[in-house]
Amino acid sequence: MKHDYSSLIDDYKKNGFVIVDNFLPEDIANRLELLYSGKDNDWTFTDQTRPDFFKKSHSQSSYTNSVYFPGEDETYSAKFWNSIPLTDNTENIHDEYFKPILERIGEVELNDYYIRCYKLDDGCHYRTHIDNWVGEIGCIYYVNKKWIWDWGGILHVGVDNEVNKVVPIFPKFNRAIFVNHGGFKFPHYISHVASYALNPRFSMITFAK
């Protein structure tokens, strides 16, 4: 699908992120969904706890000045599944469709790409964190053909670290979100996936610099 990238670039610069629905051609989006649903992806589970992650002194600190986000005395946690084989199997799609748009929207030459293929199921989540140390620009792409609001797994983005406004973003099929990590400091989190969710939540994440 063709998109008005001049308008998308303007929104990206102004707001720090931009949502692009129907990002991939339909046949490519369907192919990705089939790859994620395959039985040979060798998913690895991570249960992460970082007691110092919200401290100001941490090199990757996710501390904010808002009383509505975690303080220095709290502990960061995340639970998720990651697949290295799936990352390898989707690299050609990423190179053809994602890389050029990351450079076009970010208006910057990018040399390093860090790609992750994620699965979230019962209890998986990410507490508040800030990714500006990982790269200049990031992309979140949603793979699921079906998801429900109350299944959880919803990305919540703080407009910045000074205010109390949070924007929830639904993990809609074939939706891409481009985030300006270099120019903005966005605290964000993903709510817990509910036990009654009928299928896992799949996504492809890119950090580039």
Descriptive notes:
The protein has 209 residues and is an alpha+beta fold. It is built from four helices and eleven strands; from the N terminus they run αβαββααββββββββ. Strands 1, 2, 3, 4, 5, 6, 7, 8, 9, 10 and 11 form an eleven-stranded antiparallel sheet that branches. It is globular. 34% of the residues are buried.
Looking at this protein, list some descriptive labels:
209 residues; alpha+beta; Jelly Rolls; eleven-stranded antiparallel beta sheet; 11 strands; 21% helix; 29% strand
Average pLDDT confidence is: 92
User: Using only CA atoms, what is the Rg?
Assistant: 17 Å
Number of helices: 4
Q: What is the chain-wise order of helices and strands? A: HEHEEHHEEEEEEEE
Distance between the amino and carboxyl termini: 26 Å
Number of strands: 11
Instruction: Write down the CATH topology.
Output: Jelly Rolls
What's the helical proportion of residues?
Answer: 10-25%
Q: Which homologous superfamily in CATH is the superfamily?
A: q2cbj1_9rhob like domain
Which blocks of ≥5 consecutive residues have pLDDT under 50? none
Domains, number: 1
